[in-house]
Amino acid sequence: MSIIKTEISGLDDLKKSLNKLGLKLADNAIKYLNKSAVQIHGTIIKGFDAGGKTGNTYFVPKTKVKYTASSAGEYPAVATGNLKRGTTITYANMQDKTAYVIARTEYAEALEYGTRTTKARPFMKPSLEANKKNISKNIKQAIKQVTK
Predict the structure, then answer these.
(1) Considering only CA atoms, which of 100, 121, 119, 81 is closest in space to residue 34?
(2) CA atoms of 81 and 88, how far apart (whole Å)
(3) Is residue 117 scored above 70 in pLDDT?
(4) What are phi and psi of 108, to 5 degrees?
(5) Are 49 and 87 in contact (CB under 8 A)?
(6) Which residues contact 27 (CB under 8 A, 6 or more apart)?
(7) What are the residue boundaries of the structural domains of the chain, listed by start?
C-alpha cells in the first residue's frame, strides 16, 4: 500500500493576513469614496460659479443687485447662495459605508428635475456623470494601495 499525504500549513496565519487585508481595503475604500464625494461636490460648486448663464436678468430678492438666471439645462445660477451653501457632503465611515452629496434646500429637487412649469436645471446628475472616470480611478487606487 502506498499513501501520499498532502498537508497545508499556515492556514491560520493566512486567515489573519486576509482579515487584515480586508480591513485595510475597507478603510482605503472609504477614504477614496470620500475623495469621490469631494470631487463631485467640487464639480457642483464650479457649475454654480461658472459664468455664462443665459436666462433672464433679475434683481436678487430684497436687494438692488442684478443677476442672470440660468436657462433650462444649465447649472442653476446663484442669486442668494442658499443652494450653494446648502449643498454639502456627509462622509462615509466604517459604520455607514456611504458618502452623500446632499442639496439641502427645499427647491433643489425642482431645479434638478424641473416642474410642470419650469424646465430642469440639473446639477447633481451632471456632476456625478462628469466624475465617473475619477470614481473608477479612485476605486482602482484604493485596491492598488492595499495589494502592492
Answers:
(1) 100
(2) 13
(3) yes
(4) -60, -45
(5) no
(6) 94
(7) 24-147
d(CA 116, CA 105): 19
Residues in the chain: 148
Please enumerate in sequence order all residues whose Cβ is within 8 A of that of 84, keeping only pairs 6 or more positions apart, or say none: 45, 48, 49, 78
Neighbours of 52 (CB within 10 A): 8
Element (H, E) at 27: helix 11-49
Nine-digit cell at 118? 419650469
Which pLDDT tens digit goes with each residue over 34-51? Answer: 999 999 999 999 999 998
| pLDDT reading at 59 higher than 60 | yes
Choose among 80, 86, 132, 90: nearest CA to 109. Answer: 86
Instruction: Classify residue 101 by burial, with Cβ atoms within 10 Å: 0-12, 13-18, 19+.
Output: buried
For cell 462622509, name the residue.
91
Angle at 53 between CA 49 and CA 54, to 5 degrees: 175
When pLDDT is averaged across residues 103-116 and rounded to a whole number, the result is 95
| Contact between 146 and 21 (Cβ < 8 Å) | yes
